[in-house]
Structure formats: C-alpha cells, structure tokens
Amino acid sequence: MNGHTPGEPVDMNAVAVVCRRAWNAVEPRDRTEMKSPAQTVIIHHTALRYCDSVSQLAHIQHMHMQERGFDDIGYNFLISGDGMVYEGRGWGIVGAHAKEHNLNSVGIAFMGNFNDEMPSSAAQSALLRLLHIGVLHGHVWPNFVLEGHRDVAKTECPGEYLYALLPKLRDQLQNQ
Ligand SMILES: [Zn+2]
C-alpha cells in the first residue's frame, strides 16, 4: 500500500517510486546517460501473468540480463496493477526496450498481459503522475509523444486493451 486512499484528491506532484534496492535489483553492467530530455514515451506490457511485484521485477531483470544480454532491466519504469511505480533504469538513462528508439525515449511497462484484460485505473493514474513528474523535472520534453511499442516495431506489445487506451491517456496528459 502506498497510503493513498481511493477517492482522495491526487497530488499531481507526488508519485511513489519503489527504488531498485527494494526489489533486490542487481547492479547494471553498464549505463548510458541520455543527452537530452526524452522526446517519446513508449508504453509496453510485460506480457507476464501478474504475481507479486518484487519477485517479478527480479525475474524480468534476470531474463533481460541473462537471456537477452542487456546491461540491466530494459525498461525505465514498470507499473503494477495496484498503481505502484517501480524503478527500472530510472530517469535519464538510455533503456533497452524499443530497438532504434531507445536513445530518445523512456520505456514504461505495465505489468501484466493486456491482450486479456484492461489496465487498472490505479496503474493509469500512476502513469499520468509519473509523466507529470518527468516533465516537471526536465527528464521528458513537455511536448513528448506517447506511443505504444507496436507503433514503432512489429510486435503486439503493449496488448490490445492497453493500446486502445492510449488516445484517452494522451487526452488526459494534455489536460493535466
Ligand atoms: Zn514492448
């Protein structure tokens, strides 16, 4: 629990980010800083059945580093169904999530498989707050473009239901 009561006004300047230490991340092999604020935010899903977040984060990091040869977990952030935001590579670090688009984008994964279900409203709201903070702190360009992974690659990611939500999320971002 992050202490936020449903129905309570959301403080747009606050989002609880669970740091790497809390999910037992191993050290990255290497990291590259982004040269300028991200111009694009690319939305993914993990396509894994949701279980408890801490072991799932460690599992994803292991897959990305051992099986796919990445330097670290590929995503910059991950969002669980209960609306918690987990630090992947974090802000300002080049990710490994969308080939040929990593250098100027932030990769955010919703945890779960959204070919089968809708992302929770808690997860959607966490995304909006996270991006608000990202712009406020200069990590993301104010006029950034929000895309689904399938907009830039041949993949079904981020799943039918999450992809179908992106226009609504774009509207909410513009009005926030
Ligand atoms: Zn993806």
From TrEMBL:
<dbReference type="Pfam" id="PF01510">
    <property type="entry name" value="Amidase_2"/>
</dbReference>
<dbReference type="InterPro" id="IPR002502">
    <property type="entry name" value="Amidase_domain"/>
</dbReference>
<dbReference type="InterPro" id="IPR015510">
    <property type="entry name" value="PGRP"/>
</dbReference>
<comment type="similarity">
    <text>Belongs to the N-acetylmuramoyl-L-alanine amidase 2 family.</text>
</comment>
<dbReference type="InterPro" id="IPR036505">
    <property type="entry name" value="Amidase/PGRP_sf"/>
</dbReference>
<dbReference type="GO" id="GO:0009253">
    <property type="term" value="P:peptidoglycan catabolic process"/>
</dbReference>
<dbReference type="GO" id="GO:0008745">
    <property type="term" value="F:N-acetylmuramoyl-L-alanine amidase activity"/>
</dbReference>
<keyword id="KW-0391">Immunity</keyword>
<dbReference type="GO" id="GO:0002376">
    <property type="term" value="P:immune system process"/>
</dbReference>
<dbReference type="InterPro" id="IPR006619">
    <property type="entry name" value="PGRP_domain_met/bac"/>
</dbReference>
<protein>
    <submittedName>
        <fullName>Peptidoglycan-recognition protein SC2-like</fullName>
    </submittedName>
</protein>
<feature type="domain" description="Peptidoglycan recognition protein family">
    <location>
        <begin position="15"/>
        <end position="153"/>
    </location>
</feature>
<feature type="domain" description="N-acetylmuramoyl-L-alanine amidase">
    <location>
        <begin position="26"/>
        <end position="159"/>
    </location>
</feature>
<dbReference type="GO" id="GO:0008270">
    <property type="term" value="F:zinc ion binding"/>
</dbReference>
